[in-house]
Design goal:
GTPase activity, alpha+beta, Elongation Factor Tu (Ef-tu), domain 3, Transl_elong_EF1A/Init_IF2_C, 4 domains, Rossmann fold
Length: 612
């Protein structure tokens, strides 16, 4: 029986291969359209993803070398060296896209640090050791240099025990809202695990009263306020200023519910002040809203998933379901154990033991790391996604315990907008619609993620496919990012467009917006994919119907054919299956990952061939 890990690796290979093919073809097509001779594509080109990953590894070593060189120049005390260090710092910040963790002194071994062992002894430390005076001098000089080039510095961590060391956050304020880096975090977990309350505390600043005060400002519907249960995909943002401090409303500690709802900071106010934005996708925990939660996970393209586990209840119900879906989609996971103030110590110990057991199980194969210090939060934020680590935070929204570590971790999470393995600016425009509204005096407004290319206001675009597989021409009247007006948008950003002469009824979730060309992209009704059945209580056969989630697409599909010798599929089986959309054709591409479900049945797969 094929293991999930093997199948996921194969899925990634197919996805990367198809993506490289499509990007190469797109560049040739763009050159043809612009009447330029096509650029030669070298035969031995590595896949984009390999190139990107090797580049990032090279960059890390490069950044460390640059930081050591800057420190040597600043310690020399000579005026020319000081100027050279200032130029090098400006170059470092530019290459790191305006944000960089600057480490002074030697670094403890990550294995010891993450295991929570005492950091004594000389073995395993990396970098150049510094005296306490050198650390102080470097902190002061680096701050002065960065401020001279228009940046801001905040001290993240300073230690004068064992080996004196410090970590500074260097940031350049973005020139406008269109260039502010964003990190998307999906928040999942079982009912009553404290998802909305934790987000309320993180984004509003005031602590909870233990009776749901913090979550009141987050709900979108009247029935949500009455029941205390999220039923829709809620969006909240947390902005961080250039100096690293969270941007919170002035009335953070108010006890009045009306004040909490009324006095919250507007998104545009946060966007203007922020040097980095963390967007939370608040998903529903109740079983009957699983379809909505799945849609939020597949369409929101989150950089990581924050799994909330109630300390008093443990990993129960939908928590396991959400964890399984996150692992199936290969999204890094962060666990937050909430309500530690009201949970008896023996129950909390049981919950922790259960979480560790599940994370270490063969299905997860992750290394749990309990975040107990700022230094751990700093190091984990940079490496947890690549090294199969799972940070675990223990929080209380009533006493505030552990919240500072979470804020620091979120502040340092790298933005995936610049990840060339996911999003590229030099590709044709591709924007997937995840939400649609009709706004009075504005018209039809769509929200979604720019998967490729760049776009400007006033550009002519095509929107589709409709129920017949056709595309209609429209113009982008205006554009907003986090409710602040912008004129341009780049790949990887989440933006809203106001569309000209388009009726609200003509737009649905899952549609795409592409550049206006002679030949619009093909709308697909039938396609072939490789799938692995994660769970089914009996057998799957021909004509079986299930709900398919593929990016922003959510539609019922029918299995028309399968290559299994017996013509049936059970749990753990793998096969090449032909699917057909039931109601209307969609825009799909080879290499796209898909997830299908119906009741408790779940399957995971990747599109390998488009049929018609």
């Amino acid at each position: 029986m094929p293991t999930l890990r093997d199948f996921q690796n194969e899925m990634e290979e197919i996805h990367d291969r198809e993506l490289t093919k499509q990007r190469t073809q797109a560049l040739i097509d763009m050159d043809k359209e612009n009447k330029r001779p096509p650029k030669p594509v070298p035969a031995e080109t590595k896949t984009e993803v390999e190139a990107a990953s090797s580049e990032s590894v090279g960059d890390d070593h490069d950044f460390e070398g640059m930081q050591l060189e800057i420190q040597t120049q600043l310690l020399s005390g000579a005026e020319p060296d000081h100027d050279r260090a200032k130029d090098a710092l400006a170059q470092l910040l530019t290459r790191a896209r305006g944000e960089c963790v600057f480490r002074i002194g030697s670094r403890p071994p990550n294995i010891k640090l993450f295991a929570g062992e005492p950091l004594d002894g000389e073995s395993g430390w990396s970098g150049v050791s510094r005296t306490l005076q050198e650390v102080e001098k470097l902190c002061k000089d680096v701050t002065a240099c960065v401020e001279e080039v228009g940046g801001k510095v905040s001290v993240l961590h300073k230690s004068d025990t064992v080996q004196p060391r410090a970590a500074l956050l260097l940031r350049l304020p973005p020139p406008n809202v269109a260039l502010t880096p964003e990190v998307r975090v999906a928040v999942v977990g079982n009912v009553d695990s404290g998802k909305s309350t934790t987000l309320g505390v993180l984004t509003r600043g005031g602590l909870d009263d233990g009776r749901g005060r913090a979550r009141v400002g987050l709900f979108r519907h009247k029935h949500e306020i009455e029941t205390g249960r999220t039923s829709s995909v809620g969006m909240e943002i947390l902005g961080f200023a250039p100096d690293g401090s969270p941007i919170l409303p002035k009335t953070a500690n108010s006890m009045d519910l009306d004040t909490i709802r009324r006095e919250k900071l507007g998104w545009e106010e946060i966007s203007v002040q922020a040097a980095k934005i963390v967007s939370f996708i608040d998903l529903a925990g109740h079983e009957k809203y699983l379809k909505t939660t799945l849609y939020g996970l597949t369409s929101g393209a989150p950089a990581c998933v924050m799994l909330m586990v109630g300390g008093n209840a443990g990993l129960i119900g939908m928590s396991k379901e959400h964890l399984a879906i996150s692992l199936a989609l290969n999204v890094p996971v962060v666990v937050c154990i909430t309500k530690v103030d009201m949970t008896p110590p023996n129950i909390l110990a049981e919950t922790i033991k259960q979480v560790v057991k599940v994370l270490k199980s063969p299905g997860c194969r992750k290394t749990p790391v309990f975040v107990k210090s700022t230094e751990m939060a700093i190091e984990l934020s940079q490496v947890f996604a690549n090294e199969r680590l799972c940070p675990i935070f223990q929080l209380s929204n009533v006493t505030g315990e552990g919240l500072d570590f979470v804020r620091l971790f979120l502040n340092l999470l790298p933005s995936d907008e610049q990840d060339s393995s996911k999003f590229m600016n030099d590709q044709p425009l591709e924007y997937s619609v995840t939400d649609v509204w009709s706004v009075p005096y504005v018209g039809t407004v769509v929200n979604g993620i720019l998967n490729g290319g760049t776009v400007k206001t006033g550009e002519q675009v095509l929107l589709g496919p409709d129920s017949n597989g056709n595309y209609q021409s429209t113009v982008i009247k205006s554009m907003q990012r986090k409710r602040a007006p912008v004129t341009t948008a780049d790949a990887g950003q989440c933006v809203s467009f106001a569309l000209k002469r388009v009726r609200r009824q003509a737009v649905r979730k899952g549609m795409v917006i592409v550049h206006k060309t002679e030949t619009p992209p093909r709308a697909i009704r039938r396609f072939e994919g490789q799938v692995l059945i994660l769970y089914h209580n009996t057998t799957l056969q021909k004509n079986y119907q299930a709900m398919l989630h593929c990016g922003a697409i959510r539609q019922t599909v029918r299995i028309t054919d399968m290559d299994h010798p017996q013509g049936i599929l059970r749990t753990g089986d793998r096969a090449t299956v032909k699917f057909e959309f039931i109601s209307h054709p969609e825009f799909v591409k080879e290499g796209m990952k898909l997830l299908f479900r119906e009741g408790k049945t779940k399957g995971l797969g990747v599109i390998t061939r488009l049929l018609d």
